[in-house]
Amino acid sequence: MAQLLLGQTLSFASNPWHTPIAEAAIHERHGAVLVENGTIRAVGKADDLRAKHPDAKIINHGNHLIMAGFIDAHAHYSQTAIIASWGKRLIDWLNTYTFPEETRFADRTYADQVAETYLDLNLSNGITTACAYCTIHPESVDAYFEAAQKRGLRMLGGKVMMDRNAPDGLRDTAQSGYDDSKALLRKWHNTDRLSYVITPRFAPTSTEIQLEATGALWAEFPDCLMQTHLSEQSEEITWVRELFPDQQDYLAVYEHYGLTGPGAVLGHSIYLSDREWDAVKASGSSLAHCPTSNAFIGSGLFNAKRSHEMHIPTGLATDVGGGSSFSMLRTMASAYEIGQLRGDALHPAQLLWMATQGSADALRLGSKIGNLVAGREADIIVINLASTPVIEQRVARSENFWEQVFPTIMLGDDRAIDTVYINGQPIG
Ligand code: GUN
Ligand code: ZN
Q1: What is the pLDDT of residues 412-422, one digit of tens each?
Q2: With 90 as the cut, is the pLDDT of residue 428 above it?
Q3: Which of 12, 156, 210, 423 has the fewest CB atoms lying closer than 10 Å?
Q4: Same domain, 24 and 108
Q5: Do 276 and 191 have their domain in common?
Q6: Closest ligand 1 atom, CA of 98?
Q7: What CATH number does the domain containing 292 carry?
Q8: Which ligand gives the minimal distance to the CA of 294?
């Protein structure tokens, strides 16, 4: 039976980074979304859709905002339990907190527990799709995808490959990394709503032989995404220069092994040279902006204005647990703050775009999810725009829609997420 969700609605007619906001964003004060069989059938004015679909079941969300679910373009589900670990920069943070925690994922029962917690936290924050790094253990991938499959989620992820500069128990080999990834890819890629992502962690933890095998695997399965980290922190960049003295810069390492191109999702990418920016663009790769992580680990200020000016697909990402929040609202707030530190005041429409359609495009899912338009999968969130006293009193002063939304972006958290629909069904 068709359902008609009523409330304020937000959808995008075009990219608000490239077209004037008033043209790009469509806000209906009294809007409606028609959902049937897990698909959005129509979006429009409440009166029009009620008249056209008198038999649809009405679900009235009042003054709340109905929009596409948030999409996290880069996260580590295996770092859920170590989020907010104090006091380290990237390499020390990996060695002190991350690697010991990831070692625990050899235990399938533990992996299952964390996968469930991770998905619970995502959904309570309105994240309906995420692209996650698992650990080197194939069991960690099975735990993740089985948990997502059970809930009917559209999720992406893959087995981390690392064959050096990681502790015992947390290294594969070029051959086993290739074989295990291929077996997992065959098992999970395009199973229900799941997508396998080829996942070399980053250049410092893979030998040249492993990077070569990874490039070969991706060439065999170009339909898969490939995700890795790029140019996140100064010490890391120095280390890459030492490990790969023949390559002119960090991106060149990935280029050399066939690890750039359409479907490559490059996390962080803060310190790109002009050559690297141009090469990212020319290759058709995507970027993932991880603002809370970049602030928390002290990495630096990603240039979101430049990536959009260059029309590079750019997603927004929590990067949990280097990132310090599961909230995409908090992540947008952090992106705003980083923009301010760069002298760029990002508009709320641009932030919301990055968290939805921008991430979907970066993950090559732009025609399936990420926007409230007919034909998309019905992964929808309903946001309470007055979820706490401080937001409520601020909204009372608002004079337009964007002033109504911005306080929730800056001050909101999971309390603002009123309802989450997965495939048209409300959850929890
Ligand atoms: N670089 C390599 N691995 C990681 C990771 O797990 N988190 C972050 N933030 N950066 C990385
Ligand atoms: Zn990461």
Answers
A1: 999 999 999 99
A2: no
A3: 423
A4: no
A5: yes
A6: 6
A7: 3.20.20.140
A8: 1
| pLDDT tier, 22 (very low <50, low <70, confident <90, very high otherwise) | very high
Q: Quote the pLDDT of residue 20.
A: 98
Task: For residue 94, report the distance from its CA to the centre of ligand 1, in Å.
Answer: 7
Most ligand 1 atoms within 8 A of CB, residue of 93, 134, 140, 201 to mutate = 201
Last-in-domain residue among 362, 383, 414 = 362
Phi, psi for 297 (deg, rounded to 5): -85, 0
Tell which atom from ligand 1 comes closest to the C-alpha of 323.
Answer: 9
CA distance 129 to 154: 6
pLDDT one-digit tens code per residue, 151-198: 999 999 999 999 999 999 999 999 999 999 999 999 999 999 999 999
Q: What average pLDDT does this structure show over 65-94?
A: 98
pLDDT of the residue at 89:
97
**Residue in the block written with tokens 């601020």:** 394
Helix spans in 13-134 (H) = 21-24, 46-52, 90-93, 99-103, 108-124
Ligand 1 pocket (Cβ < 6 Å) reads 76, 90, 94, 98, 201-202, 229, 232, 293, 319, 322
d(CA 382, CA 8): 9
Instruction: Using the mean position of ligand 2's atoms as its centre, give its distance from the Cα of residue 266 in Å.
Output: 9
pLDDT for residue 75 is more than 90? yes
Q: Is the dihedral of CA 208, 212, 213, 217 positive or negative?
A: positive
Predicted confidence band of residue 320 (pLDDT cuts 50, 70, 90): very high
Distance CA 316, CA 353 (A): 9
What are the residues facing 54 on neighbouring strands?
none
Is residue 266 within 8 Å of 230, Cβ to Cβ?
Answer: yes
Q: Average pLDDT over the chain, rounded to whole? A: 98
**Mean pLDDT, rounded, for 219-224:** 98
> How many structural domains is the chain composed of?
2
Closest by alpha carbon to 271, among 248, 241, 303, 228? 303
Is the pTM here over 0.90, yes or no?
A: yes
Domain stops at, among 362, 380, 396 = 362
Confidence bin at 147 (pLDDT 50/70/90): very high
| Atom of ligand 1 lying closest to residue 205 CA | 2
Are 16 and 137 part of one and the same domain?
no
Distance CA 416, CA 70 (A): 13
Provide the domain limits for residue 422: 3-69+371-426
User: Hey, which of 72, 85, 90 would you mutate to test ligand 1's pocket, going by the most ligand atoms within 8 Å of its Cβ?
Assistant: 90
Q: How many whole angstroms separate alpha carbon 427 and alpha carbon 143?
A: 21
Q: What are phi and psi of 229, to 5 degrees?
A: -105, 145
